[in-house]
Design a protein that fits this description.
This protein is mostly helical and 221 residues long. It is built from ten helices and no strands. Helix 6 runs antiparallel to helix 8 and helix 9 runs antiparallel to helix 10.
Length: 221
């Protein structure tokens, strides 16, 4: 068929699925949408994965093991542990470029939470992410960015909870941008433990309020 690709990797299909999911909710998404995005026929995806659900389970399994690579990339681009943590928080705002996009992501999350297999992959990623956050906080304390008496295990759980809760609050109030909302909440949590106060006007995204910067971050759902 003209315009169709002869060869496509699983990574190509997963990337195509994420692009299709960014535009359609779980009840709208079809295997044909993913196939069209990947440049193959739906039959090719059926042969490889069996069904839309099986493809999404495979994508979820890939996401489950992605936390380490995400934080490696963030560390490589930053100077210190807290800068890396702030960069991670800013990346989470990519789930909410618009209220409508966040609603789609929450719809996929609802499906994940209702499905034992998908939820298992979600929990695996969440635990790995919390370990990465805890490691960054421990490194920050060792480097003199945080007070040495900070309980990094408790603080990591609080940071994880605040980032997720901040997105939900932003979805409710819809004031400003999600990246700034998350940034202010993260800094409120870190403030009592900082050895040096954050520069006035800065946010967790590492930019001054009122400026705009585009970034890319791909996450399942």
């Amino acid at each position: 068929m003209p315009g169709r690709r002869q060869k496509v990797t699983d990574e190509d299909v997963f990337a195509a699925a994420q692009r299709a999911m960014s535009r359609r909710g779980p009840h709208e998404l079809t295997l044909a949408h993913i196939a069209d995005e990947a440049g193959v026929t739906p039959g090719r995806l059926v042969q490889r994965f069996g069904s839309k659900r099986a493809l999404l389970v495979a994508l979820s399994e890939r996401f489950a093991g992605s936390a380490g690579a995400v934080f490696v990339a963030l560390r490589a681009a930053r100077r210190g542990p807290l800068a890396t943590l702030r960069a991670y928080a800013a990346c989470m705002a990519d789930l909410a470029p618009t209220p409508e996009a966040l609603l789609r992501n929450l719809a996929y999350l609802q499906g994940d939470l209702a499905d034992d297999v998908l939820r298992g992959h979600l929990v695996e990623n969440a635990r790995a992410t919390r370990r990465e956050i805890e490691a960054l906080l421990a490194a920050a304390a060792a480097a003199g960015e945080l007070r040495h008496d900070a309980d990094v295990r408790v603080l990591a759980r609080t940071v994880e909870t605040v980032i997720g809760g901040s997105l939900m609050s932003w979805a409710t109030y819809r004031e400003g941008e999600a990246i700034d909302w998350i940034g202010r909440d993260l800094e409120a949590v870190l403030a009592p433990w900082l050895m040096r106060p954050l520069a006035e006007g800065a946010t967790a995204s590492g930019r001054k309020r009122g400026t705009r910067k585009r970034r890319r971050f791909v996450r399942r759902g």
